């Protein structure tokens, strides 16, 4: 039902520097940096859901808080293994109907992760719209 190890989210493997694009249009609501998770971005989609992207390198954001972004617009790049908890370069992506999705930073997110939405359908739609 998902493409992540233990909750509804996606880890999308890609080489460092690969462009990250917004899956849907919306407003950038925040961006933070953590030494173990890299740069992240949270977008409130035009559909009312919250989209979270992380493991980008520090300062790679191509949009800032308050910016309106369109689906397919570049918002950053995939970071290094160091930006992704030393698990290899990838983008972590999740969707939630509530602003924070779950209490990020906890080791066990069983209860908190219950609100996350399976991202596969939106990723399939976004992929289909990419140029050849």
Question: Would you write up a description of this structure?
Answer:
With 132 residues, this protein is mostly beta strands. The chain has 1 helix and 9 strands. The chain has one helix at 120-128, and strands spanning 10-13, 19-21, 26-30, 33-34, 38-45, 50-56, 68-69, 74-77, 90-96. Strands 1, 3, 4, 5, 6, 7 and 9 form a 7-stranded antiparallel sheet that branches.
Oligomer: single chain
**Helix proportion range:** under 10%
Order of helices and strands: EEEEEEEEEH
Low-confidence segments, given as residue ranges, are: none
Strand content of the residues, in percent? 25-35%
Distance between the termini: 27 Å
**Total beta-strand segments:** 9
| Mean pLDDT over all positions | 85
Query: Over all CA atoms, what is the radius of gyration?
Result: 13 Å
Write the layout of secondary structure elements.
Layout: E1 10-13, E2 19-21, E3 26-30, E4 33-34, E5 38-45, E6 50-56, E7 68-69, E8 74-77, E9 90-96, H1 120-128
Antiparallel strand pairs: 1-9, 2-8, 3-5, 3-7, 4-5, 5-6, 6-9
Structure in a nutshell:
Helix content is 7%, strand content 32%. It has one helix at residues 120-128, and strands at residues 10-13, 19-21, 26-30, 33-34, 38-45, 50-56, 68-69, 74-77, 90-96. Strands 1, 3, 4, 5, 6, 7 and 9 form a seven-stranded antiparallel sheet that branches.
């Amino acid at each position: 039902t998902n493409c992540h190890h233990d909750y509804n989210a996606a880890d999308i493997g890609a080489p460092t520097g690969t462009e990250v694009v917004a899956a849907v249009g919306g407003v950038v609501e925040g961006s933070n940096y953590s030494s173990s998770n890299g740069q992240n971005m949270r977008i409130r989609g035009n559909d009312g859901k919250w989209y979270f992207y992380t493991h980008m390198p520090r300062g790679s954001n191509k949009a800032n808080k308050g910016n309106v972004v369109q689906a397919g617009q570049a918002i950053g790049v995939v970071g290094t293994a160091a930006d992704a908890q030393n698990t290899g370069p990838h983008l972590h992506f999740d969707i939630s109907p509530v602003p924070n999705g779950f209490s990020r930073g906890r080791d066990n997110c069983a209860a908190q992760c219950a609100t996350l939405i399976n991202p596969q359908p939106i990723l399939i739609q976004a992929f289909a719209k990419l140029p050849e």
